[in-house]
Design a protein that fits this description.
Length: 214
């Protein structure tokens, strides 16, 4: 374990914010090599360069730490999604971008499906986890609803379709971990399958097919 960091922030509040951020960065680093379900509080404290006692001052247990990390990751995903797309993008383009970023995030921070994490963390943590990832689900349903309303996608129930898309994305976790596929190939597989299932063979203008479907 590294030496205890000195207070470099101008205030105690700023120091606490910096330490909290360092803890979440430690979680992110650890997930790249061992998966979030395998990380211990001891691992996180060592990676962040603080004592376990100090860590518990910020997060009382692993579920609380996991929820904070998930909330930060979800917010970062939504921000990146919005910045990666031009204004007025068609639903198919938005869906392809959503899938690509999801697969990239899964490859960078491997983790079990929410249901598996919930089973290991308990029902209360599972409910809180579901609330933290809800913005992701809303973003996806919004894309699907846009496609249906614009006539770009078949008129399928968006909530059920969103769950199917997320399940397909989650199914890429093990192949990615085993090196059996790449983020590029996994993303293309899910995107092509989903777009074809939605009937998205052409853009709403009817003159340009989605690049993945040509």
């Amino acid at each position: 374990m590294g030496a205890m960091p000195k207070i470099s922030a101008p205030t105690i509040a700023a120091h606490r914010a910096q330490t909290r951020e360092r803890i979440l960065e430690a979680v992110a680093a650890l997930t790249r090599v061992q998966g979030i379900d395998e990380i211990s509080m001891t691992d996180v404290a060592a990676e962040a360069g603080i004592t376990r006692t100090a860590l518990y001052n910020y997060f009382p247990d692993k579920p609380a730490l996991l929820l904070a990390f998930t909330e930060q990751a979800t917010a970062g995903f939504v921000d990146r999604f919005r910045s990666d797309l031009p204004a007025g993008a068609a639903a198919a383009e938005r869906l392809e971008t959503f899938i690509r970023l999801q697969v990239e995030a899964l490859a960078e921070h491997p983790h079990p499906a929410a249901a598996e994490l919930g089973a290991s963390l308990g029902p209360d943590a599972y409910q809180a986890l579901a609330e933290h990832v809800a913005p992701m689900h809303r973003l996806l349903t919004g894309i699907l609803r846009q496609g249906v309303d614009d006539g770009e996608f078949a008129a399928l129930p968006v909530e059920s379709t969103a769950r199917l898309v997320l399940a397909m994305l989650g199914a890429q976790r093990v192949p990615l971990l085993r090196g059996e596929t790449t983020p590029e190939d996994a993303g293309r597989l899910v995107a092509v399958f989903t777009l074809r299932a939605l009937g998205a063979r052409e853009t709403p203008a009817g003159d340009t097919a989605s690049p993945l479907l040509t």
